[in-house]
Specification:
single chain; 5-stranded mixed β-sheet; about 800 residues; about 55% strand; globular; mainly beta
Length: about 800
């Protein structure tokens, strides 16, 4: 039996549920040492207004039998991608959805795993750390350097409808979810906020009135120990329900640090918890309150030198330390044994000229704390009008220190601490008019985000001990950011006939960004002779959507859409190389033309969906890391690089070849061409054919086979599954440099699961990256700079283990 929570019709109404929420939250606050009201002073009035709107009879609880489809038939997948509950097969956009059962059966445990099953999706932890940011690209559109607070993601991330301005943190671990939705293409009207390439929705499990208890425990190689638990209960019969969930993930470092024992990088030590309450205040009012907390204390991911030029400063630094540079260059296609160990020092052997404590030498750390609370209130105003409020608050605090060169010499080191918070509010009015012939959503959105960043970069600290001319290369940067975004939007679906619908939407966005930069040499902390400047930027955009949908037959659906996406501009992480002042970049815009086809065949045993698209992409933002030829400074350079045209397609197949044998396959293809790329340092246009889209492989494929062994119900059931995921060559910058790319590769995984007769206990044996394929996930090419080196971080090696799952 499944408990269904039903919102009925309104019998009384006194006011708009959150008519003043945006005004309450928009009052703002001061920051960093100045008086500021606690966040709950800002959110509480909105909450009180929301839950005090209606007074009516007791809420309805109805129970219905779960009705799974017959064995060997596909089940319906209900999504809320357009903020309405719809069948994925009649939703006019290209998307992938993973239910809780999908996540369990496919052993999808992190957000990175989603990319192996989703065409034209790149999703990975920045520099190997989810706390530093999630690099998300859909159809080649997205931001790669999200670990910098200047970089807004251009694929929107949402948790229970709450926009996540900084895409990082605990949701990377797909913790206690009901489903995940991946929306491909710009979401300009419904989502808006920098959802240029698409959106990823994480929908957590909600209290449903059932008494539940679930426990998962697993262990594997590299000392892996993964624990999670979920419990649900009723606090007040028919009124108030609660769930509590917690998780813990630990494993030893994937790479052994031979230089400093016990300081092994690429380990994991993450813990988190979530509490959720659902209040059925009346037949017409529901409130969902969720709070989460997570923290991690681990070492930073390992970076290796893939190439070291003999005449560069990196080679000189290693030689001066009494070692041989050739020992630390693992090559662009290293073996698994070549990256199983590293000599990582994190500046312990250099920088004696720095003041005590500056640069935090000798540490390797990836520590972070994340907290959040959200409130969603839904109220039936009339039988055909529902008002929903989604309020959210999130905060983070991070410390990161790493050795980027992978050698015992102090060459490239980064230390960063930052913190911040965000408040968001979205109000939606959802209506069904003219006997259901018109569904309309009208809403408003508000975001206020504040961040503080303290970053120091130590360069060639060993050589600089005896060469004062090199000491000025090392820098410390103190930056503050205050971002505000306000938007109003409308989205409508109108029935032209019983089988044909037209879709139209529009969104207006207004954003303001303010910053203050204090940049200077690390040797003279907080004197900041280089830069002490504030700046404010403002952007606005109107992003429309227009589409048509048609039910060609009962099991065949086609659609066509035209949509515009917008991603706001911002600040360069480093000062302008010529002027020494704050450098900025302009907003990106994108027009997407798309047609799609969705179908079900063979008595619901086969599902085939496909989409084709063309995107015109302007003011493309690119990132490069290197040394300025103008002032010798080193850092991240962010700039607009012209125009591009992107064409491609996605195709997804799910087929029950037999009642107990399932085939799943997908294909993503991209053809990305720069039309112009900007002007080079010589003042001449850069040939666009020499540039690549970064973190955007041309081809992404997946093939999976899953089989259930015939068995006697009294003896339990065995399931076996195997997956192949393939990616073509991936470039990590926009240059034709093999040192900044990863050649095509494939990953294999397999699972064997035994479900006991009571169907409450399962035991799973799993293996990931069974071929132990070494593949780069990011790189930096400094071969053309005075450093004379190229760097890379690599994905996880082969892992395997056992998991025990218990469901009461």
């Amino acid at each position: 039996m499944t408990t269904t929570l039903t919102l009925g019709q309104t019998t009384a109404s006194t006011a708009h549920p959150l008519h003043s929420a945006i005004a309450v939250l928009a009052r703002g606050a001061t920051y960093r040492g100045k008086p500021r009201s606690p966040w709950w002073h800002q959110v509480a009035p909105a909450i009180i207004l929301s839950i005090g709107v209606h007074t009516a009879a007791r809420a309805n609880l109805t129970t219905t039998d779960d009705a799974p489809p017959p064995v060997g038939q596909l089940q319906d997948v209900i999504v809320t991608a357009r903020k309405l509950s719809e069948d994925i097969q009649t939703t006019g956009l290209s998307m992938a959805a993973f239910t809780r059962a999908d996540l369990d059966s496919l052993h999808i445990t992190t957000a990175t795993d989603l990319a192996n099953f989703t065409p034209n999706l790149e999703l990975k932890a920045s520099g190997g750390s989810a706390a530093q940011g999630l690099e998300v690209k859909i159809r080649g559109i997205g931001v790669s350097d999200v670990q910098f607070d200047t970089q807004d993601p251009s694929v929107g991330m949402y948790i229970d409808g709450v926009f996540i301005g900084r895409a990082f943190g605990p949701q990377f671990y797909l913790f206690d979810l009901d489903r995940v939705e991946v929306l491909r293409g710009p979401q300009g009207s419904l989502y808006g906020q920098n959802s240029l390439g698409g959106a990823v929705n994480f929908i957590t499990r909600k209290p449903d009135g059932r008494d539940t208890l679930e426990f998962d425990a697993g262990g594997g190689n590299y000392g892996a120990l993964n624990l999670s638990a979920h419990a649900g209960t009723t606090l007040i019969d028919q009124y108030l329900f609660a769930t509590f969930a917690a998780f813990s993930r630990t494993h030893d470092g994937y790479t052994k640090n031979v230089y400093e024992s016990g300081n092994d990088p690429s380990d994991e030590n993450v813990h988190g918890a979530r509490v959720a309450l659902r209040w059925l205040a009346s037949d017409h009012l529901t409130a969902d309150l969720t709070a989460d907390y997570s923290e991690q204390h681990q070492h930073a991911w390992a970076f290796f030198a893939t190439a070291i030029l003999p005449n560069g400063l990196s080679a000189a630094g290693i030689t001066a330390a009494g070692d041989q540079p050739a020992r630390y260059a693992v090559g662009t296609n290293p073996s698994a044994s070549a990256i199983s160990s590293i000599s990582q020092d994190n500046s312990a052997s250099g920088g004696s000229f720095l003041p005590t404590g500056i640069g935090d030498r000798g540490r390797s750390a990836d520590d972070a704390t994340f907290k959040g609370v959200s409130l969603t209130v839904a109220a039936d105003i009339t039988p055909v009008i529902v008002v929903k409020s989604i309020s959210g608050y999130r905060t983070f605090d991070r410390f990161y220190a790493t050795d980027l060169d992978g050698s015992p010499a102090a060459i490239l080191d980064e230390v960063k601490s930052d913190n911040g918070d965000q408040i968001t509010e979205e109000v939606q009015l959802i209506s069904k008019l003219f006997d259901g012939h018109l569904e309309m959503l009208v809403g408003g959105f508000f975001l206020h985000e504040q961040m503080y960043e303290d970053e120091s970069n130590g360069f060639l600290l060993g050589l600089a001990d005896t060469d004062p001319a090199l000491q000025g290369l090392s820098t410390q940067n103190l930056h503050t950011y205050d971002n505000r975004s306000e938007a109003g939007f409308m989205h409508a679906i109108g029935r032209l006939t019983d089988r044909t619908r037209i879709v139209a939407g529009i969104r207006y966005t207004d954003e303001t960004k303010s910053t203050h930069f204090n940049d200077g040499e690390l040797i003279s902390p907080r004197l900041f002779s280089t830069l002490n400047e504030a700046d404010t930027l403002r952007f606005n955009a109107t992003t429309p959507t227009l589409g048509i949908e048609h039910d060609a037959t009962k099991n065949m659906f086609v659609y066509a859409t035209l949509s515009k996406g917008f991603a706001s501009g911002g600040y360069n992480e480093t000062p302008d190389a010529t002027t020494g002042r704050i450098s900025t970049y302009k907003p990106e815009t994108l027009w997407n033309y798309e047609v799609g086809y969705k179908s079900t065949w063979l008595d619901r045993r086969l599902r085939f969906n496909a989409a084709a698209f063309l995107m015109n992409y302007d003011n493309i933002v690119i990132n490069t890391f290197g040394q300025s030829s103008n002032n010798g400074g080193i850092g991240l350079e962010t700039a607009n690089a012209g125009r591009a045209r992107v064409t491609g397609c996605e195709a997804e197949l799910q087929w029950y070849l037999a009642p107990t044998l399932e085939l799943v396959a997908s294909l993503g293809e991209l053809d990305q061409k720069y039309l112009d790329y900007g002007i080079g340092s010589d003042g001449l246009p850069i040939p666009p054919q020499t540039a690549h889209f970064f973190d955007a492989p041309k081809t992404t494929n997946h093939l999976g086979m899953y089989y259930t062994f015939p068995s006697n119900p009294s003896s339990g059931t065995f399931h076996v599954g195997a997956d192949w995921a393939h990616r073509s060559r991936t470039w990590f910058d926009n240059d034709n440099t093999p040192a900044s790319s990863q050649e095509s590769y494939s990953l294999f995984s397999a699972r064997l699961r035994y479900a006991m007769p009571n169907n409450r206990t399962t035991l799973t044996a799993y293996g990931e990256n069974l071929g132990n394929r070494v593949y780069a996930v990011s790189s930096a090419n400094l071969l053309t700079t005075a450093f004379g080196t190229a760097l890379a971080a690599f994905g996880a090696p082969r892992t395997f283990g056992l998991e025990l799952n218990y469901r009461l």
